[in-house]
Amino acid sequence: MNAFLPSRRTCLRVAASAAALFGLAAVHAQTYPSKPIRLVVPFPAGGATDVLARVIGEKMAASMGQPVIVDNKAGAAGIIGTDAVAKAAPDGYTIVLSLSNSLLTNQFLYAKLPYDTERDLTLVYQIAAAPLVLVVNPSVPVKTGPELLKYVSDNKGKVAYGSYGIGAYPHLAGAHMSLTQQADMNHVAYKGEAPMIQDLLGGQIQMAFASALVAKPHIEAGKLKAIGVTGDRRMSVLPNVPTLAEQGLKDEAYRVTGWLAIAVPAKTPKPIVERIAAEVRKATQQPDVQSRIAAMGFEVKDSSPEIFAEAYKKERPIWERLIKQSGAKLE
Fold first, then answer.
1. Which residues, 6+ apart, have CB-to-CB distance to 240 below 8 Å?
2. Which helix (H) or strand (E) covers residue 123, if one does?
3. What is the tens place of the pLDDT at every residue in 68-127?
4. CATH code, residues 35-129+258-326
């Protein structure tokens, strides 16, 4: 007999242990939730992510019969709150609602992260895509995407674009435009979107990718010109603004979007993951919630753990390429 082969008794004991664990997980899933759920938002209170979490949390609480408590654990571009969830017990009572930066792009920006999304978290549900609108100061003599590409190329070194942080999508998309058009554009990183828009209005910078929520009033007042929106579909709040892809700017840099999503600690039992996904889907399919999401400039997604995992796998290399191309690095 091979001394390295487990005995029949050992195999039975392992099988029994596995069955017991599976049975406990199944029982846990049947009684879930039996206490309040903590919904961690790794950003400050009052922002769009926080507002969305409170809207969805309220609907989930009503449906699940337990309070859903929103816990703002802000700091370090979403890293602190996301890490807290990654290290929490995998029992369905600690959930994170975050942006794509803390769940996807930070891994390419930071030399060291305290968590690995694919190892330490289970992706549950992609709530909404977050496309942006490319806007320019009215002094820029263009109306379309192709005209803007020609303008930045013809004015090498004279155009400045803004972003609300190094490695954020507005930085990556602007860097891609500058590189592909050999425009040598100047990147100006701001501490937030509000100061970026103020400088764009004042003419200190000429262009930026901005949220519809912030840019729309200025577009309607004629203080900014909307050139196009990112992603593959027009925004419901800016239906007359074509996508950049519609205008022939089909580079992947202009077609990807950020997103808002739910994740839980790795090893959370599959029935609980599926229950959370079902509850989030139920909440986001309600007309009042969809209206709130649309008003923020987001596009509601119909998701599931499997759909989200597939989308993540597809987008991951695109964001990695864009970040490497931009040269963005953070400590």
1. none
2. strand 121-130
3. 999 999 999 899 999 999 999 999 999 999 999 999 999 999 999 999 999 999 999 999
4. 3.40.190.150
Is 41 exposed, middle or buried (CB count within 10 Å of its CB: 0-12, 13-18, 19+)?
Answer: buried
* Beta carbons of 266 and 55 less than 8 angstroms apart: no
Instruction: For 161-187, write each residue's pLDDT tens digit.
Output: 999 889 999 999 999 999 999 999 999
Domain ranges of the chain: 35-129+258-326, 133-255
Q: Which tokens in the block code for residue 85?
A: 């969830």
DSSP string spanning 153-221? Answer: HHTTTT-EEEESSTTSHHHHHHHHHHHHTT--PEEEE-SSHHHHHHHHHHTSSSEEEE-HHHHHHHHHT
pTM of the model: 0.86
CATH fold of 133-255, please? D-Maltodextrin-Binding Protein; domain 2 (3.40.190)
Give the residue among 269, 304, 313 at the shortest CA–CA distance from 285: 304
Which is nearest to 139 in space by CA: 193, 207, 213? 207
